[in-house]
Amino acid sequence: MAEGLIMGLQVIGAGFGRTGTMSLKSALETLGYSKTHHMEEVLPDARQRRLWHDVAVGLPPDWDSIFDGFAASVDFPSSTYYAELLAHFPDAKVVLSVRNPDRWYKSASETIYAISKSSPLWARRFVTPLRHLHEMVEGTVWQRVFQGRFEEKAYATQVFRDYVEQVKVIVPADKLLIFEARQGWEPLCAFLGKPVPPIPFPHVNDSAAFKQRIRIIRAMFFAVHAVAAAGAVALLWWALH
């Protein structure tokens, strides 16, 4: 991302994570909206993590800095701030990605929720970068949107349904596209005034990659626990002999 290049969002993705947001990101970038903001941009970028941590703890959002160099946004954490973003970028259009609520819940619970809980409590409390990351995700997604009740399926899927209806009320109809990735290029391109690309619509299914990340993270912390336990046993043996 080029520092100092403030483009202003032209497309605001309002859909929850795991509603085809990676496919939508790829599609928007193919249509020329480079770069498109996604949680994938936040996690590896210390600056993005700091800016979103500020949002999570209640500081005034610096939307221009957060989206410096980006033409579009999708996915958590930005998606549920769609109303604030539309007020800040009033010329933008809003794409609400949706899917069946039950299928969404199963996917989200096995991927983005699981990975956010994959580090042990001690690490989230005492390892500063992990603590800040946890605070950011909790403050912008799990607590803010689901009030800490995501594990209650009936509650979380009702939040999903209510949210879709809320977006329909808040965003003017001429600025809103309700979109499923399986619909392909035509409705998206018609809404954005773009020609249909001569390539298939991207279908990025990253569930397997998410689950592999979760396994790696859990294995890493298990190894840390094992080393710490071995060290404690050695220290105890030394102290007693």
In order across it, which strands form the biggest sheet?
A: 2-3-1-4-5
- Topology pattern, helix = H, strand = E: EHEHHHEHEHHHHHEHH
3D shape:
globular
Instruction: Count helical runs.
Output: 12
Count of DSSP strands: 5
| End-to-end distance | 58 Å
Q: How would a crystallographer describe the biggest sheet?
A: 5 strands, parallel
Radius of gyration: 20 Å
Helical amount? 40-55%
- Unreliable sequence segments: 1-6, 216-241
Quickly give the structural class: alpha/beta
- The mean pLDDT is 86
Q: What fraction of the residues are assigned to beta strands by DSSP?
A: 5-15%
Report on this model:
- With about 240 residues, the protein is of the alpha/beta class.
- It has helices spanning about 20-30, 40, 45-55, 65, 80-90, 100-110, 110-115, 120-125, 130-140, 155-170, 185-190, 205-240; strands spanning about 10-15, 35, 70-75, 95, 175-180.
- It has a five-stranded parallel sheet with strand order 2-3-1-4-5, with helices on both faces.
- Helix 3 (about 45-55) packs across helix 9 and helix 6 crosses helix 10.
- About 30% of the residues are buried.
SSE map:
Blueprint: E1 11-13, H1 21-30, E2 36-37, H2 39-42, H3 46-56, H4 63-66, E3 72-73, H5 82-88, E4 93-97, H6 101-110, H7 112-116, H8 121-126, H9 128-142, H10 153-170, E5 176-179, H11 185-192, H12 207-240
Helix pairs in contact: 3-9, 6-10
Top keywords for this entry?
single chain, 241 residues, alpha/beta, five-stranded parallel β-sheet, 12 helices, globular
Summarize the structure.
The protein has 241 residues and is an alpha/beta fold. The protein contains 12 helices and 5 strands. It has a 5-stranded parallel beta sheet, sandwiched between helices.
